[in-house]
């Protein structure tokens, strides 16, 4: 019969238990033992919850304190040399992800180590720690084999799980060559790593595992035939070495296309495909597997929070069953449920205040129920299918999802609304004349530390414990403090610090129609950081100005230039749970019109530097190159619509982070921003070559220090980065700034880092051209 399965469950806990225990460990409040005990408890709860929903194949090995790719690297001994002197355990693993900095003591030398690079996990807002491989890389399993330990942990509870392992091809090709191994072809490490996979699989088989899930997400990307040949050889070898194990190759986030060619003769027992992102691939995949292989159907959206149309999903499942037989079909979410909140059980406020919309939602626990409903088939779940159909129809016909004025405004957009009045060289001259800045101007990306006091005041305001006047007086004090600190540091273009903002997308969503907010809809972003994406359920539009009051107040406190800070339409889209009943491009254009109105009001208020952040524009790029142009056309058009209605003397900034810009460089040029700031400090300067190669002529601020790490880089370290930048960027166009916003850092490290950063700019100005 059809089996109900899952690819992964959220690791953060229903009440963000993982975040809380990890950050307590970082603060020195709890021991490693306490951290481990908390994890054991949470994993048990996750397994038991999935078992209670009737899943027959439950994943293990999907838990992580920080990042599953980092865990896999450590398990395979892929630990950069700079961390090897640190003792095994959580402190070293966290240091790899965050960096580490400790002053010298009588018994210990100074410790100052940079974190590994962090990148977006495909087209999600989750970040993974990029493995670093050396030419002489050795692989071996340590004494603590995480995947095996967690399989045995579940087994002791009476729960037989399907271990999850990152596959060897994805492990290598999602990594990078270490600095001491330039030019390393990562695929040449395959013969070295495969024996360690064989050893791991042998241990899992000995422990009693039968099915094993091997994630190979790079199969959703364009791959050359040589890589597919490696897939065929690799899995033929691995399956032959572990004949008692049944291998399920898991792909997700897109279509497998011709990459499926190796599956039929590879020896693997099954293949998982994403039929939410790529429902059209089913027939092609069925035709390209052999007559014994299982097909796992990703029918429940693992990346959004809407109920599944079970009737439609059931039709797809029945198509597969008719072609393959019920014994060769699994039903599952499209991908790991890492990307959806844990449970609706704690959404009390949403359930009481917005019962209609609450009825349209499904988080991870509810998605497991949906998987089981598909597994049960038509006859046994008639009532459940009927209830689901009622919810789907109610959402389709709801009057709350459409706004005729918004639709009319979309239809009235004309090409002139997507162009600045003059080309950049002419604007640059006017901007420098109107508001002169020193060479190598310094700025920050927007946010400053969200202190305990800020969070407490916001919580009291949200609960109604303080009134509007008291809260906004507090916010004004925080803005004044932030402006004073920047003036003391000598920063050239200031920001107001965003004390009033809980999140760079949620803040705007709270002020736009068409959004609604969860109370507990948290998902993992990176490390211990969780985000609570707002929910776009209807047509989006702006009712009144959203940021003007704070920016104008901040500008009144200083003679220096103040930047207005906005989040761009593509990022608002990407970092929200987006309605799935109209095209994403339409939603993005609605957001662009709202931001355009805000940009116009900031300019009217004499804010002449306006930053419209688009850190997620590369994140939204489709996985297949054939789909790039369509996405980039509407995404860049949305940015232009939001930003081009200003005078030539108004400076439009944008910010991007964690991106491989080579794929979108022409789109970046077409965005026509006056100043582009980018994440750069952990990318080994490799992205800057693209700016030189493609002839980027606008101003640019590559980050000189990593804000995701608590360590404070020295002036010399930052100066070396800036000097390297000048090999690619003309002096007149270079800004000096951090990688990203400073929200997650503390004031002490922020002051020290920014002071060093300003010193770099001063040193550059003193140097000869």
Plain-language structure description:
This protein has 769 residues and is an alpha/beta fold. It has a domain of 341 residues: TIM Barrel, CATH 3.20.20. Helix content is 41%, strand content 14%. It is built from 27 helices and 25 strands. The strands form seven sheets. It has an eight-stranded parallel sheet. Strands 15-20-22-23-24-25 form a six-stranded parallel sheet. Helix 13 crosses helix 14 and helix 23 runs parallel beside helix 24. The longest helix has 22 residues. The protein is globular, with a radius of gyration of 26 Å. The model has no long low-confidence stretch (mean pLDDT 94).
Tell me the strand percentage band. 5-15%
Low-confidence stretches are none
- Which oligomeric form is depicted? single chain
Global outline: globular
SS summary, helix count: 27
CATH topology of the domain at 424-764: TIM Barrel
| Rg for CA atoms | 26 Å
Count of strand segments: 25
Q: Which CATH top level class of the domain at 424-764 fits? A: Alpha Beta
> Which strands sit side by side, in order, in the main sheet?
1-14-13-12-11-10-8-2
SSE class: alpha/beta
Largest beta sheet, briefly? 8 strands, parallel
Strand-helix topology:
Elements: E1 3-4, H1 17-26, H2 32-52, E2 58-60, H3 68-75, H4 90-98, E3 100-102, E4 111-113, E5 118-120, E6 127-129, E7 132-133, H5 146-156, E8 161-166, H6 168-173, E9 176-177, H7 190-207, E10 211-215, H8 225-241, E11 246-250, E12 270-274, H9 282-286, E13 294-300, H10 310-324, E14 329-333, H11 348-353, H12 355-358, H13 364-380, H14 382-397, H15 404-411, H16 424-434, H17 452-463, H18 468-489, E15 493-494, H19 506-509, E16 512-516, E17 523-526, E18 529-531, E19 535-542, H20 548-556, E20 561-567, H21 569-574, E21 577-578, H22 584-604, E22 609-613, H23 628-643, E23 651-656, H24 665-671, E24 675-678, H25 688-693, E25 699-702, H26 715-725, H27 747-766
Parallel strand pairs: 1-14, 2-8, 7-9, 8-10, 10-11, 11-12, 12-13, 13-14, 15-20, 19-21, 20-22, 22-23, 23-24, 24-25
Antiparallel strand pairs: 3-4, 5-6, 16-19, 17-18
């Amino acid at each position: 019969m059809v089996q109900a399965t899952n690819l992964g469950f959220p690791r953060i806990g229903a009440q963000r238990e993982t975040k809380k225990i990890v950050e307590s460990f970082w603060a020195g409040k709890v021991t490693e033992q306490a951290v481990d005990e908390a994890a054991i408890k949470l994993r048990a709860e996750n397994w038991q919850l999935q078992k209670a929903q009737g899943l027959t194949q439950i994943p293990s090995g999907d838990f992580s304190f920080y990042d599953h790719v980092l865990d896999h690297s450590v398990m395979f001994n892929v630990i950069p040399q700079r961390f090897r002197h640190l003792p095994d355990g959580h402190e070293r693993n966290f240091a790899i992800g965050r960096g580490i900095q400790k002053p010298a003591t009588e018994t210990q030398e100074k410790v100052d180590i940079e974190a590994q690079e962090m990148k977006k996990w495909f087209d999600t807002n989750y970040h993974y720690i990029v493995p670093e491989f050396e030419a002489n890389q050795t692989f071996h399993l340590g004494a603590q084999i995480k995947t095996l330990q967690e399989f045995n942990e579940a087994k002791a509870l009476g729960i037989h799980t399907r271990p999850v392992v990152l596959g060897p091809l994805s492990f290598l090709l999602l990594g990078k060559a270490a600095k001491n191994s330039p030019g390393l072809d990562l695929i040449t490490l395959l013969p070295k790593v495969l024996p360690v996979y064989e050893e791991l699989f042998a241990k899992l088989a000995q422990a009693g595992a039968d099915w094993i899930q091997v994630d190979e997400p790079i199969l959703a990307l364009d791959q050359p035939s040589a890589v597919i040949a490696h897939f065929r050889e690799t899995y033929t070898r691995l399956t032959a070495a572990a004949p008692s194990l049944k291998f399920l190759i898991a792909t997700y986030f897109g279509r497998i296309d011709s990459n499926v060619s190796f599956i039929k003769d590879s020896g693997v027992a099954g293949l998982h495909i994403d039929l939410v992102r790529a429902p059209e691939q089913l027939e092609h995949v069925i035709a390209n597997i052999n007559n014994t292989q299982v097909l796992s159907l990703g029918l429940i959206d693992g990346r959004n929070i809407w109920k599944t149309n079970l009737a439609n999903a059931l039709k797809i499942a029945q198509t597969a069953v008719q072609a393959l037989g019920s014994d060769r079909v699994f039903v599952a979410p499209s991908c790991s449920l890492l990307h959806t909140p844990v449970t609706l059980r704690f959404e009390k406020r949403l359930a009481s205040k917005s019962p209609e919309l609450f009825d349209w939602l499904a988080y991870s626990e509810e998605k497991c129920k949906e998987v089981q409903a598909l597994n049960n088939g038509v006859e046994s779940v008639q009532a459940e299918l009927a209830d689901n159909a009622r919810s789907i129809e109610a959402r389709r016909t709801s009057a709350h999802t459409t706004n005729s004025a918004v639709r009319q405004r979309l239809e009235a957009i004309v090409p002139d609304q997507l162009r600045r009045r003059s080309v950049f060289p002419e604007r640059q001259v006017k901007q420098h004349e109107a508001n002169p800045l020193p060479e190598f101007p310094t700025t920050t990306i927007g946010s400053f530390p969200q202190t305990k006091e800020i969070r407490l005041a916001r919580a009291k305001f949200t609960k109604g414990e303080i009134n509007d006047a008291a809260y906004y007086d507090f916010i004004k004090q925080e803005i004044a403090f932030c402006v004073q600190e920047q003036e003391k540091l000598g920063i050239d273009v200031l920001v107001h610090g965003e004390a009033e903002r809980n999140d760079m997308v949620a803040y705007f969503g709270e002020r736009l129609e068409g959004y609604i907010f969860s109370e507990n809809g948290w998902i993992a972003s990176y490390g211990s950081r969780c985000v609570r994406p707002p929910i776009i359920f209807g047509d989006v539009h702006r009712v009144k100005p959203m940021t003007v009051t704070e920016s104008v107040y901040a500008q009144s406190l200083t003679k220096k230039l103040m930047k207005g800070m906005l989040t761009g339409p593509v990022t608002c889209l990407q970092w929200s749970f987006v309605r799935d009943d109209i095209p994403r491009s339409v939603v993005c254009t609605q957001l662009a019109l709202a931001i355009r109105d805000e940009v116009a009001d900031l300019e009217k208020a004499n804010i002449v530097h306006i930053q419209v952040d688009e850190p997620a524009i590369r994140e939204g790029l489709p996985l297949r190159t054939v789909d790039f142009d369509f996405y980039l056309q509407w995404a860049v058009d949305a940015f232009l619509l939001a930003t081009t209605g200003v005078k030539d003397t108004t400076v439009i900034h944008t910010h991007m982070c964690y991106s491989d810009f080579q794929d979108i460089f022409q789109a970046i040029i077409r965005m026509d921003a006056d100043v582009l700031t980018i994440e750069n400090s952990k990318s080994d300067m490799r992205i800057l070559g693209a700016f030189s190669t493609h002839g980027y002529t606008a101003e640019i601020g590559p980050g000189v220090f990593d804000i995701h790490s608590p360590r404070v880089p020295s002036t010399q370290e930052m100066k070396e980065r800036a000097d390297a930048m000048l090999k690619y960027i003309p002096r007149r166009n270079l800004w000096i700034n951090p990688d990203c916003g400073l929200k997650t850092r503390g004031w002490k490290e922020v002051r020290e880092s920014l002071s060093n950063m300003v010193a770099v700019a001063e040193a550059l100005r003193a140097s000869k051209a």
